[in-house]
């Protein structure tokens, strides 16, 4: 393992580690493995956020420069999702899944934004339930993590969705006995609920702590044979927007950047879908070809956050039907922009029958 003095570190970083008795990267890694970032932070005498930034700095500096590949070589190297048959997390709405190329992609961060009452949390809970769908029925057969920052997660509503999912799958299997394998014995509403792990984050510090500790939880779940395939944050903006006026804006920006980076890393490393719920805010924009201004609704947290997401979905209520929703794809690396529709029923998120 290389000595810290041989790495291209900031002078302040090198001085801090040396003062605390660290001489090489193996000692830093050992400290983190023994007790996570909390242990490293304690040994360095700094906050969890600072420990995470310092660890990432050392990890990046210790990485040797890799060998470049041509674009042609990359095109012919299948990624993890391709090896697994390009599995997607289905929404149980054919219109939305078709627009997304089969559902919410694993290995990516998907943002779902909308005004209050548009159905963001309903869709988030539906995706948590759908993460439990068996592979033989088009699912990813994993578990889910739900980080609830607003106290909006409803276990009763989630159980209703889980029961509806089980009923739907069993009825579908009954109709196609010769084509469908029998449903697994574990596939029951209670078992689905046992695979949805809810973390309540009452403030920004708790949210940061949960996200930082999540990799260890994800590894434990993998070792137990119950890999997490969906991580939901509902919502990402709540604690940042509720911060007191005049607070440390720069610190909040760094905090959000750290959370975004951690979530993106987890999506890739653990081959899971990160679904981040966001609120809307008003932005004053200049009308095209004029000097007039108008107020428009845009997802909260600004442009820097927008760049941290892979896919962005905007959902809104239809003006003539409060149960129907439109879902607009505004950002995707591999899908064209589009609009789909769904409705919110007692059973959950479903297609709209226009006939």
Explain what the structure shows:
This protein has about 350 residues and is of the alpha/beta class. The chain has helices spanning about 10-20, 25-45, 50-60, 70-75, 80-85, 95-100, 120-130, 155-175, 190-195, 205-225, 240, 250-270, 300-310, and strands spanning about 90, 105, 110-115, 145-150, 195-200, 230-235, 275-280, 280-285, 295-300, 310-320, 320-330, 340-345, 350. The relative contact order is 0.14. The chain starts with 10 loop residues before the first helix and ends in a 5-residue tail after the last strand. It folds into 2 domains: about 5-60; about 80-350, Rossmann fold (3-Layer(aba) Sandwich). A hairpin with a 2-residue loop joins strand 12 (about 340-345) and strand 13. It has a 9-stranded mixed β-sheet with strand order 5-4-6-7-3-10-11-12-13, with helices on both faces. Helix 2 (about 25-45) packs antiparallel against helix 3, helix 7 (about 120-130) packs across helix 8 (about 155-175) and helix 10 runs parallel beside helix 12 (about 250-270).
